[in-house]
Amino acid sequence: xxxxxxxxxQAEGHSIKTKFSTGLFxxxxxxxxxxxxxxxxxxxxxxxTTGKLINKVSEGxxxxxxxxxQAAQKAYDTTWGLNVCxxxx
Length: 89
Known about the structure:
It is extended, with a radius of gyration of 17 Å. It has one domain. It has one helix and six strands, in the order E-E-E-E-E-E-H. It is of the alpha+beta class and 89 residues long.
């Protein structure tokens, strides 16, 4: 199960707390990447106003892309594809 990241946005007297998954969205759910690594060092997620690291997110690999493509193809071939009109897609 991927981890979650909570962030408290502050703007002009307003404060909004929100929660994001740090995983990859594959087959209708958030999952960790197959290598269980993050992109912190490759392309860090930085707060531009402070320059500080906001969070680490899951790194996708070729294997993860293959899983995502297989899940999308299965969805298209079975429940989604021709059964859902273009406007809803």
